Amino acid sequence: MLVGRAEFLGVLARLTTESRLAFDVETTGLRPYQDSQLFSLVVATQSDVFYFNFLPYEDLDLEYVLPREWLSEFQVVFGNRDAVYFAHNAKFDLAMLSREGIEVLGTVHCTEAMARLLGNVELTYTLDACVTRLALATNTVISKDHTVEWYINKYDLWAWEQEPGKAARKKNKFFAKVPVDIMAPYARRDGEITMRLGEWQEDEFLLQASTVPPNLPSILALADNERRLTKTLFKMERVGVAIDKAYCEEAIKYEEARAEKATSDFKSLTGQDLVDSGKALKGVFAQYGFEVPNTEKGNPSVTDEFLARTPSPVSQIVQTYRDATKRVNTYFRSFVWLVGADGAVHCNFRQGGTATGRVSCTNPNIQSAPKEDEGPFKVRRAFIPRPNFFFFAPDYSAMEYRVMLDYAGEDALIERIKAGMDVHQATAELIGTSRKQAKSVNFACLYGAGIEKLADMLGTSLKDARRIRGEYFSKLPRVQNFIKQVVRTAELRGYVYNRMGRRCAFPDPRFSYKAPNYLIQGGCADVVKLAMNRIDDFLINRKSRMLLQIHDEILFEVHESERHICPELIAIMEQAYTPKSLPMQVVGKESGVSWGDVADA
DNA sequence: GAACAACGCACC
DNA sequence: AAACGGTGCGTTGTTC
Q1: Residue A55 lies in a domain
Q2: Based on the domain organization, do A193 and A333 belong to the same domain?
Q3: Does residue A196 lie within 7 Å of nucleic acid chain C, judged by its CB?
């Protein structure tokens, strides 16, 4: 059941001979860059599962409490460059191992990320859900063990965690308090099913590859890229981005004061407490003679759009309150809360986070950090380069529009853009509208908007929207054709492939209108992922490093002595895309002060 | 009291 | 059958 001290080295020697291993760590918490610590490790082979315990349980024979110093011995197990290592949400395990000085040198196969690549239509990609689907698909009996969750609930081995200044609490589960005779079989099962899941996924990729039409890129290259990306993202997360804590504290004070002033202004004006909900605000606006519209589900809806056009004395107050509380709760206070002992935040870039192939970001979600915000405390100024480094932030110009035109092969427009013209300006001149209107129609195409939404975006009547869209499609017939063909293929076949070979499934024909967007958004995501892997290679033995990815932008910390690599980074990003005729254009910005200060170099 | 739904809003 | 794609996160209100 548990690996004892006597057999420890023998088991490790056995593990080093394996070409495929699954692993999983059990930890005191879920914050690898703050206080969480590994207390056990499961390693599974095709035939065996080994549980290594480092926690001194009261009634456990010391033979089965391995000394923590022995953790370093695991480097030989994870040091095989030819082996494949399966783990579910692997970046978490990599981070916990890294804390102990263990580096996985072989191929990391994150079964969560790879599950997303194999199929994008599931609601959840937890280990539990993935294994349940495996059982169904292969008609075998295999499932996750839920005993530990059950035990934690039964014996209340958890506590609420209240983040200062916030309304909501979070549950902290104490896995280290679960008895070892409950923990070990549970963890062993996780190791076993991760192994089965990983091997099954490898088979599934081969199967999918055999069904790909010969003129399209194989899914296998994309799968390799995703596997590689797990390590690229992990290294990026581990570096983290430094936070100016004192600045955040100042910002919190400032925004709290703004929110408080809004609250008291509201009270003195209306005589009521400010409760920011549609239900509560409906009555207040009624007092001033304004009717609040309803949402689709029939509930009162007080949006910023409503507040901006409603000349009541409380409109501005609610806007200020919302802006201030959002900035302080979602951003500044989160940054301070999540900052590690190294003074940096280490985001979690979820590799299997989206249906299209993009990565998403949590804890904190820097991909939603305000960009054009006003006032004395800009959010992105909280992110600062470390001493002797400066920020370099290259981004792809109008990436999705360019890819859409390249996909469609809209040559007349492509020639103008190649000559240096702005994408939306070129569109505007072609269809005879303002740049702003052209941009809206481009947007609408990209997202599959209907005519009503387009009219909304353009601020015109349905009739005018129809006319403008008609003009757009008559001047850009290949874009229209591209959209039609992709939707049609998705409807008839149930799936489409993007240019990198990613398969996007649309089992419900009602949603086939999304297919062109998936190809473009997901295709762009795959380009950026490829670029990131190439950059990760390029940066080996250099001091500069990647810090963040914001879909079409990458934030680097470049060492002062390596300023010359900036053009090379841009070149790698541009060349990650193989155009039919319109190449990508990457523009670099930089700052030695903060992310909020990056500007054209 | 806890879980969940709904809403609003930050980004690409 | 329905027509704005993809996220994460905060609060409020409802439900069990």
Answers
A1: yes
A2: no
A3: no
Q: How far is CA A133 from CA A15, A352, A441, A553, in A?
A: 29, 17, 40, 35
User: How many Å apart are CA A347 and CA A396, to the nearest integer?
Assistant: 22
User: Measured in angstroms, what separates residue A23's CA from nucleotide B3's C1'?
Assistant: 32
Through-space separation of residue A125 CA and nucleotide B3 C1' in angstroms: 21
Range of the domain at A292: 245-338
Would you say the C-beta of A298 is within 7 Å of strand B? yes
Positions of chain C reached by protein Cβ under 7 A: 1-14
Chain A residues 352-411 within 7 Å (CB) of strand B: 367-373
Which residues in 119-138 of chain A line strand C, with CB less than 7 A from it? none
* DSSP state letter for A419: T
In which residue are the tokens 């997303």 written? A116
Q: What is the mean pLDDT of each run of 10 residues along chain A (601 residues)?
A: 96 97 97 95 98 97 98 98 98 98 98 96 94 96 94 94 92 96 97 98 96 91 97 98 98 97 96 96 96 94 96 96 96 96 96 95 96 95 98 97 95 94 94 93 92 91 93 94 96 95 94 96 97 98 98 98 98 97 97 97 79
CA of A388 to C1' of C5 (A): 40
Q: By C-alpha distance, which of A367, A290, A382 is closest to A596?
A: A382
Whether the CB of A289 is less than 7 Å away from nucleic strand B comes out as no
Q: Name the nt closest to A446 by C-alpha to C1'.
A: C5
Q: Look at residue A362 and tell me if it is in a domain.
A: no
Contact A311, A305 (CB under 8 A): no
Return the residue matching tokens 């990508």.
Answer: A584
Q: Is residue A370 part of a domain?
A: no
| Residue A554 in tokens | 């990458």
A280 and A394 together in one domain = no
Q: Does the model's pTM come out above 0.90? A: yes
Q: Give A303 CA → B6 C1' in Å.
A: 14
What values do phi and psi take at A381, rounded to 5?
Answer: -75, -15
Tell me, in Å, how far CA of A264 is from C1' of C16?
Answer: 36
Question: What pLDDT does residue A1 have?
Answer: 81
Query: CA at A228, C1' at C15: how many angstroms apart?
Result: 45
DSSP string, A333-374: HHHHHH--TTSEE--EEETT--SSS--EEESS-GGG--SS--
Provide, in whole angstroms, the distance separating residue A249's CA from nucleotide C12's C1': 27
Looking at A189, A211, A233, which one is the last position of a domain? A211
